[in-house]
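Box 3.1 A note on notation
Throughout this textbook, protein chains are presented in two layers. The first layer is the amino acid sequence; the second is a token string describing backbone geometry. Keep the layers aligned when reading.
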Amino acid sequence: MKSRIQSIATKIGCLGAVLLLSYRATAASVGVNIEPTDFNPSVVSINVGDQVVWTWVSNFHNTESTTDLWNSPIENTGYVFTNVFTSAGTFPYFCVVHSFTGEVDVNSGGATNAGVISVTLTNPADGSVFGNTDPVNIDALVNDTNGTVTNVSFFRDGVLLRSVATNPFVLITAPFTFSLGTHVLTATVADDAGLTATSAPVQLSIERYTPEVTNGVGALFLVPVATNLSAPLYGVSPPGDTHRLFVLEQNGLIRIIKDDVLQTAPALDLQALVQPPLNAGNPNDERGLLGLAFHPGFTNPASPGYQTLYTYNSESIASNGPPTYVVPADATNNYKNAINEWKISATNADVIDPTSRREVISFGKNAGNHNGGTCAFGPDGYYYLRGGIVGNANDVGPGHISRGG
């Protein structure tokens, strides 16, 4: 077995090809999936003139003959490699990265069993583009002359979406099934005779929710992602994170929507910190948990901002101390709005450590409205805050530099 590792950036795309698992005299194709720890199936039997088609359903593997008959590049999910066998014999092979092995047994003549099983993805077309609120119809055409099909399984990037047991073999995905970017679809078919086959991969791209808005008449469609939240007012993902959205509830909870599913437990519970001053029963109260920003170095272990985030929230002065800057014009400091620093738990990436709070700065407030709340790091690395104004109806009264408004 060779120790070298070869990487070639050649990509192969194939639409409409059919992979066949068969035992017959005419030329056929046998599919083998390259999984995280093995070739599946690890041993296949074919005839001279047949081909084996390897499909990557996990990352960083290759297929390489021990006799140099074939040698694929090291590739990732969705890649396909084919070899036609022109002579009889036993051909062992291996993955040079992970050392698991397989074998191709090539017979010189045809067998009496003429059974054939195959599956082809007929929809969507290779290279299709969708918005991530669009449903995607995934259709599979199967052929089985040897037995009865028991199921067709549909995969996204090697991860099972669903198995369908009855014809027509169709899967219609829900909105947000696919994240933004490029994905690879495959299907596998199995029958009651124990035969299986894997389709050629189909690639599709998921783009932003709606096209760029230009002048003219257009339509917007809202799709519920999470329900039963208490005044959700902002959502943001950590830098580079395509799976999680951190959502603020005004009442003081930070929730996580992970792969389109609202997690049951909050990432952080600040209800005791923001209530009071927030009166959650008053629909006109504009205090509470108002803003969230992740440090630009959130994912960099060498950065002082590693696993660090900041909230902008209302707090009681009596419980948490006086503000850094008091409300102007001799107005009463009834509460404060603070920027607090937090750290992600060392044991659970979906939990913010409640003991890690450090107040960075705070501002006195005398009215329960006009708090602003937007906060973010700019491309210059600075933290920006939209803090609102003092409050009171019509922007008059104590706390305004000009009390007449």
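Residues 1-26 have pLDDT under 50 and may be disordered. The two ends are 82 Å apart (CA to CA).
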